Amino acid sequence: MDQVRETPTAGGETGSPICRIALLWRGDPAAAPPDPELTRQGPIFGALAERGVAAELVIYADHVVDSVRERLLTFDGVLVWVDPISDGQDRSTLDPMLREVAARGVWVSAHPDVILKMGVKEVLYRTRDLGWGADTHLYASARDLHDRFPSRLAAGPCVLKQNRGNGGIGVWKVERIVDAKAPAGLDTMVRVLHARRGGVEEELSLGDFLGRCEVYFEDGGCIIDQPFQPRLPEGMIRCYLAQNEVVGFGHQLIKALIPPPPTGAGPEAALPGPRIMHPPSAPPFQALRMKMETEWVPAMQQILGVETAALPALWDADFLYGPRTAAGEDTYVLCEINVSAITPFPDSAATKVAQAALTGARAAMKVR
Q1: Are 198 and 168 in contact (CB under 8 A)?
Q2: Which of 46, 105, 142, 228 is the most exposed place for a label (fewest CB within 10 A)?
Q3: Is 63 in a helix, a strand, or coil?
Q4: Backbone phi, psi, residue 350, to 5°
Q5: Distance CA 49, CA 8 (A)
Q6: 47, 331 contact by CB (below 8 A)
């Protein structure tokens, strides 16, 4: 029988810990576990140990879900890193187990119900009237998509996004090959580019492309439609938060939805640039930080019905640069919120994430 592996308490502290918190991600439960300090979550292990928390690694796989459940029930809290889609696997087995663990008194971050509010593309539609919004549309069915999307292309290139995914899966740039202001039809030829790494431009009829997208409506899914942002080549800003507090930024020149380099340019030309990490105090991002902490996050919480204590201990909001104002100032357009598996993250985030986890676990202990 497969056994759930765990590491010794991080930091080697002596005496009784004030609480026990598991850090969980997907892997091979039968393999030797990695040294926590050498993983991407190493700074969080260290920050928890500094607070007297016994932090332990638990490796998850669907075939050992029952033993993982029993293991997690011995903890006071669990921080989870599992992508919505990875190597053909999803969270359909994991999420019900996490809900059960949370219902039995263990603090879980991010809770699957919070992910379904924040970590899906539908949040772009529900919060479209905030300052981070754009002219965003939601299609609830394949018929709805076929009926309404063609006329949208008259305004320019669009980006279609399946409701739940990661790594650019199910995210497409769509534009007419012949520029025209008249509404498009299903026989109109379009150029499409998949945001997933390695995507290449294709030319096909709009009807054929929309037929390809029908799979995204399975299991109650939907499709979100946003205008393509011309300043995409200037990069993406990832704003990291511990609950409602900004804890760092990452700026990266991305290649998703940008046509691939010409043949012969070399494989490195298609790779995104490095993500440059910055602390929350970085001067270039103070206007964005102020907007997030004082306006946008509180407004999002009200719209989605998420209390501050339920916000994930670590999450991020990805922004593209929008049109500049008349005064030349930058604006920002939200393109995604990530909640399920945030790595990498700036070192400046670790202490705040550890404190949020400790606070959440202690609150759960009091209720139990």
Answers
A1: no
A2: 105
A3: helix
A4: -60, -45
A5: 12
A6: no
